[in-house]
């Protein structure tokens, strides 16, 4: 009877561990999809190029040169969406711009951004094209499950044309 009880306990503990791991990986997949939607939202903002009507009075009524996403590389626990301004929009690609933060998004506690090949990425209208800092043909953003960096991660890739893809 004790042997059967020990075996049942062992199987139950394995099942609970497997279920927790599966739930965590599911959370990573869901967040990766939300993150891609946020990137597409920033691209849409750049495509629409509407006048800025945010809280900063210095830029009221101006059309931003573009919109972008920046990452907190120290902690990897948040990213922010911003509008890009310069009187000469052709100078944005050289890094000459002012940014106004529009929104800050915190990552779920189990997920972090472990690395980015560029920071930030800016989408410039009208198509919108992507500008990376430092300059590159594409950028990779690695989302990882805390504690499982080697096994549970998603790489989000953005190319210069704005195409977004994800790989493991």
| Largest sheet report | 5 strands, antiparallel
Q: Count of DSSP helices? A: 1
CA radius of gyration: 21 Å
The overall strand count is 9
Average pLDDT works out at 88
Percent strand equals 25-35%
Low-confidence sequence ranges: none
What's the end-to-end separation, in Å?
45 Å
* Helix-strand makeup class: alpha+beta
Strand sequence of the main sheet, in spatial order?
3-2-1-5-6
- Share of helix, binned: 25-40%
What order do the SSEs take from the amino end to the carboxyl end, as H and E? HEEEEEEEEE
Outline: elongated
Q: TL;DR of this structure?
A:
With 168 residues, this protein is α+β, with helices and mostly antiparallel strands. The chain is 28% helix and 33% strand. The longest helix has 47 residues, at 2-48.
């Amino acid at each position: 009877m004790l042997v059967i009880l020990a075996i049942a306990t062992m199987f139950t503990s394995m099942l609970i561990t497997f279920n927790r791991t599966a739930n965590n990986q599911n959370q990573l997949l869901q967040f990766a999809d939300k993150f891609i939607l946020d990137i597409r939202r920033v691209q849409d903002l750049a495509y629409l190029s509407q006048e800025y009507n945010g809280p900063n009075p210095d830029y009221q009524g101006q059309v931003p040169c573009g919109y972008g996403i920046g990452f907190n590389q120290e902690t990897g626990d948040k990213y922010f969406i911003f509008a890009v301004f310069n009187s000469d929009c052709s100078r944005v690609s050289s890094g000459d711009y002012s940014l106004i933060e529009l929104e800050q998004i915190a990552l779920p506690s189990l997920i972090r951004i472990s690395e980015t090949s560029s920071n930030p990425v800016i989408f410039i209208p009208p198509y919108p094209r992507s500008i990376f800092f430092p300059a590159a043909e594409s950028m990779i953003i690695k989302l990882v499950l805390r504690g499982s960096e080697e096994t549970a991660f998603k790489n989000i890739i953005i190319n210069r044309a704005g195409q977004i893809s994800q790989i493991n």
